[in-house]
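2024-03-11 09:14:02 INFO worker-7 job=invfold-0412 stage=load source=structure_tokens
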């Protein structure tokens, strides 16, 4: 009997690791994708296994066009069936003001934060449609909903990811597949560690969120209880985008 399997990109730390742990608690066998930090990914796998779950660390750079087939092929082989949940979490930022933002910084962010999720989603959909069941959650950002100076590349990618989410969702809704986005705001991760806490003044909740709070929302969207939720964008931002 095939196991229910889920693939989480960029899952060696932060939000991705929290999502992987949360899905494992719900009984999913989890693919913990990482690009370079094998040790961190294997720690996440060990935590899941120690808690009685199933998980596999999977190395791949999601910007490589061959990565989707490699990752899904490994999951299908390991767990004996299609991947029925995909979380596109891997992302980068390369901040600068638009007048001085270079082509390389623009392209790197678009490739990682938008093109890679598109290719991963495309690879996921056919097996999900055949199974007439599937869940895809794209990790966007509050910056995809409101402006943040110095992040035009990141904002364009995350807004594009929301548009991809909505369009693909209506294309496959009749086949039992849901596609939703979660838009985190200020979350306490390595990516925000070096930014001044003074910026939290702009957050109505006056605090940063935790990776676990984002993971809880993803966990819901992947659950059977969310089977009638598709094309939605769930903000997890302490009121920042309200």
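2024-03-11 09:14:09 INFO worker-7 stage=emit residues=242
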């Amino acid at each position: 009997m095939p196991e229910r399997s889920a693939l989480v990109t960029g899952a060696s730390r932060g939000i991705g690791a929290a999502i992987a742990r949360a899905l494992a608690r719900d009984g999913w066998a989890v693919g913990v994708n990482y690009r370079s930090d094998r040790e961190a990914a294997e720690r996440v796998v060990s935590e899941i296994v120690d808690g009685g779950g199933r998980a596999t660390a999977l190395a791949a750079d999601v910007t490589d066009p061959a990565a989707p087939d490699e990752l899904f092929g490994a999951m299908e082989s390991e767990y004996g069936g299609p991947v029925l949940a995909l979380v596109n979490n891997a992302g980068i930022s390369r901040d600068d003001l638009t007048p001085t933002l270079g082509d390389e910084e623009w392209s790197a962010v678009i490739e990682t934060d938008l093109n890679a999720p598109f290719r991963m989603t495309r690879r996921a959909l056919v097996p999900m449609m055949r199974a007439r069941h599937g869940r895809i959650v794209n990790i966007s950002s509050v910056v995809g909903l409101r402006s943040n100076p110095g992040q035009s590349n990141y904002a364009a990618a995350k807004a594009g990811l929301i548009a991809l989410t909505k369009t693909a969702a209506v294309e496959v809704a009749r086949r039992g597949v849901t596609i939703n986005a979660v838009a985190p705001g200020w979350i306490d991760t390595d990516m925000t560690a070096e930014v001044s806490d003074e910026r939290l003044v702009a957050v109505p909740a006056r605090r940063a969120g935790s990776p676990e709070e984002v993971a809880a929302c993803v966990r819901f969207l992947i659950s059977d209880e969310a089977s009638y939720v598709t094309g939605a964008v769930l903000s997890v931002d302490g009121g920042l985008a309200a």
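2024-03-11 09:14:09 INFO worker-7 stage=report msg="The two ends are 45 Å apart (CA to CA)."
2024-03-11 09:14:10 INFO worker-7 job finished
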